Amino acid sequence: MSSKKNKTSYVILGLLNEENLSGYEIKRIVDDRLSFFWNESFGQIYPELKRLTSEGLIAVSSADRPVYSKQSIKYEITEPGRLELQEWLKSPVEKELIRFEILLKLYFSNANSSDTMLEHVKEFQTSHLRQQQLFQQFEAQLKQNIDVHSNHRQILMVLSFGQKMWEAYAAWSEETLRLLEQNITAQEDDTDE
Amino acid sequence: MSSKKNKTSYVILGLLNEENLSGYEIKRIVDDRLSFFWNESFGQIYPELKRLTSEGLIAVSSADRPVYSKQSIKYEITEPGRLELQEWLKSPVEKELIRFEILLKLYFSNANSSDTMLEHVKEFQTSHLRQQQLFQQFEAQLKQNIDVHSNHRQILMVLSFGQKMWEAYAAWSEETLRLLEQNITAQEDDTDE
DNA sequence: TTAGGCATGTAACCCGTTACATGATTTG
DNA sequence: CAAATCATGTAACGGGTTACATGCCTAA
């Protein structure tokens, strides 16, 4: 009911809606599966778990917490929590937040710094290629045992977004590397004269 | 020298490196030309201008501040400021920051909320199409009077990134809308039986 | 003359990361 | 048994948005 929560709370509610999890597990799932478009830190997750518990949107799961495994605290979503999640799903999507430092640097660079930018773009290219490959494994797994009754279809749509982004990154990297190399050769010809 | 400044300071230094500007003009330029991968608010710009001035990296430009136009304060970059900018250009690029709320919602949605998601994706599609068209105008302008001696080439590389992203957004939107529509029809068939 | 854009600035607040602290459990 | 990983949590700090306050200037 008391809407306008921070996004971390919805990440928690969304994940708990599927299965009972501890704070640590939530962090791992976000890192493993959502990291290409989202991230959370422990410093957000743990306090938020307490807050959501005090508000009754989630609860410590006694079923998942047998005496012999004390150190991990699993949480489960409550009915009010599910309602809150559904309401958020329907609310308007906020504009995405994007900050590409590499584009900022490129924008402020000039012909003289082409060699520096070349290195930056190369790094950009390889790091994204690595990330893309990791996600392709996950995608292949999902596609094999697709379950119509869970949200596998939705997850595939999300991964498809990532896939298209990475393709765009790759195409841009190659194009830009070519252009920067041209700049460098042109520069060298200049100084030769 | 005292490195590790916030990003706002480099945006300011980068823009002042091209021409003398006021805080208000800086904000407008960021909104007009960088908004697809960066943004700044007045609450960051004005205090940062003061800080950079007190550090001697920029200075109030007396030349650009004739008595008759008092209300606008133009700043110019200093030599130490240019050095600081060059150092930052060479430093490693920080990983980009991305948060797509629409993907979060899609990830946590299920077959039952396909109609809601359909609306969200439609909104996503049109808003990006609008933005893309605005930037295509700017790009066309730039390409006509390309100046080799300023950083026009670099700006075109940045715009090409945006172009490829928007193409990816468009392709994903269409693909996803089709899939969601399929979900909805399948759902209706289900309830018909 | 009044509305809208130009222009600067501050304060409150929220968000988010990082560093730190602590301890249990597992594995080589 | 030592190192890595699992696990929870807090505090400090810095980043960044929003709201607010103020006033000038210009064009309908």
From TrEMBL, chains A, B:
<dbReference type="InterPro" id="IPR018309">
    <property type="entry name" value="Tscrpt_reg_PadR_C"/>
</dbReference>
<protein>
    <recommendedName>
        <fullName>PadR family transcriptional regulator</fullName>
    </recommendedName>
</protein>
<dbReference type="Pfam" id="PF03551">
    <property type="entry name" value="PadR"/>
</dbReference>
<feature type="domain" description="Transcription regulator PadR C-terminal">
    <location>
        <begin position="98"/>
        <end position="181"/>
    </location>
</feature>
<dbReference type="InterPro" id="IPR036388">
    <property type="entry name" value="WH-like_DNA-bd_sf"/>
</dbReference>
<feature type="domain" description="Transcription regulator PadR N-terminal">
    <location>
        <begin position="12"/>
        <end position="87"/>
    </location>
</feature>
<dbReference type="InterPro" id="IPR005149">
    <property type="entry name" value="Tscrpt_reg_PadR_N"/>
</dbReference>
<dbReference type="Pfam" id="PF10400">
    <property type="entry name" value="Vir_act_alpha_C"/>
</dbReference>
<dbReference type="InterPro" id="IPR036390">
    <property type="entry name" value="WH_DNA-bd_sf"/>
</dbReference>
